[in-house]
Amino acid sequence: MSDTIVSATQLRQNPQDGSPHVVLLGAGASRASFPQGDANGRILPIMCDFVEVLDLAGSLRDAGIDPKENFEVVYSRLVSDRLAGDLLQKLERRINSYFSALTLPTTATHYDRLLLSLRSKDAIVTFNWDPFLFDAYRRNFEVTQGKLPGIYFLHGNVRIGCCPDHDEWGDRHAACTTCRNPYWDVPLLYPIEKKDYSTNHYIASAWREAKDSLGSALTLTIFGYGAPDSDADAVKLLRDGWFGRSNREAEHVEIIDTADRQMLYGRWESFTPTLHLHFESEFRNSRLWRWPRRSCESLFYPSIMGQPCEDFPLPNTSSLIELQQYCSEIARHEQP
Ligand SMILES: [Zn+2]
């Protein structure tokens, strides 16, 4: 053991290969990242104000449904009602068009910061339908020479399509590079009790790869994900992945969330047998923000070598270019 501090320069210049940092991203992260809405002031819904924000109340009322009822419950009931086909289609069209139209501001956002703080060995898994992660990925790809984390949309996304025959996916309007056929839309999986994760080619492979990353992860960050009851099966699958190769007795789980801590303990204690949960209410205090692209090193040196690490936080700037320059300079020391 040694008390020598590992300097920021040492950390930046000597990235370790190794286990991934996995981030589970929820709708709360989008709301926290865009408190004033998207580039055009459109508000990001969370489940409790979903009907209001997407203006679905009229359609529900016309069908004799109380718009104040929990939307997940309503949706679940409509799916099992064969006579509700027209209303379902109408709701789905509205949901698709609302989320598709959302636009990233031109300034640096938390989605840029999140992607630029992670490396190609890392992964972000999300149930979010909004396009921000996909759009931020595209605008940061070149500046890092593609050294960005894997991104997995476990409930589909409004921006993506996939080839039904080949292991390819991307922009919904693009084509498969193998067979040249246009991509098929990846369906949005709605809040119903029994979700089907195996029929769609993309969804099946996203789950497989997400569970694989979770199994080998050194650390997990859960950012703004409320784990609603309708996602109970999904959360169980994620937990199975997390415990797939380890009993997690030396786990490191960080929760970025503004909810009450006791409640958060209750929500996530099954991921941490020794209850070492670390809470932050703001992304700017997180491990990723303090040690961009070296978050796993910032855990390794103190816990294995007894050496604290000097931090080198992301610049406090709204300039996307400044943020990209800061992170691409760190990425320069990493293998392609
Ligand atoms: Zn194809």
Architecture overview:
This protein has 336 residues and is an alpha/beta fold. The protein folds into two domains: 8-40 and 107-331, Rossmann fold, CATH 3.40.50; 47-100, no CATH class. Helix content is 38%, strand content 10%. The chain contains 14 helices and nine strands. A six-stranded parallel beta sheet has the order 3-2-1-7-8-9. Helix 10 links the parallel strand 7 and strand 8 (253-256). Helix 7 (110-116) crosses helix 8 and helix 9 (201-216) packs across helix 10. The longest helix is centred in the first third of the chain and has 16 residues, at 85-100. It is globular and about 70 Å long. Zinc ion binds at residues 163, 165-166, 168, 176, 178-179, 181.
Estimate percent helicity.
25-40%
**Counting H and I runs of at least 4 residues, what is the number of helices?**
14
Q: Within the largest sheet, what's the order of strands?
A: 3-2-1-7-8-9
Q: Which class of the largest domain in CATH terms?
A: Alpha Beta
Question: What small ligands are held by the chains?
Answer: zinc ion
Gap between N and C termini, in Å? 32 Å
The largest pleated sheet is described as: 6 strands, parallel
Q: Which series of helices and strands comes N to C?
A: HEHHHHHHEHEEEEHEHEHEHHH
Mean pLDDT: 92
**How many distinct domains?**
2
Radius of gyration: 20 Å
The CATH architecture assignment of the largest domain turns out to be 3-Layer(aba) Sandwich
| CATH topology group of the largest domain | Rossmann fold
Task: Quote the beta fraction.
Answer: 5-15%
Envelope shape: globular
Q: Low-confidence runs (pLDDT<50, min 5 residues)?
A: none
Instruction: Give the structural class.
Output: alpha/beta
Beta-strand segment tally:
9
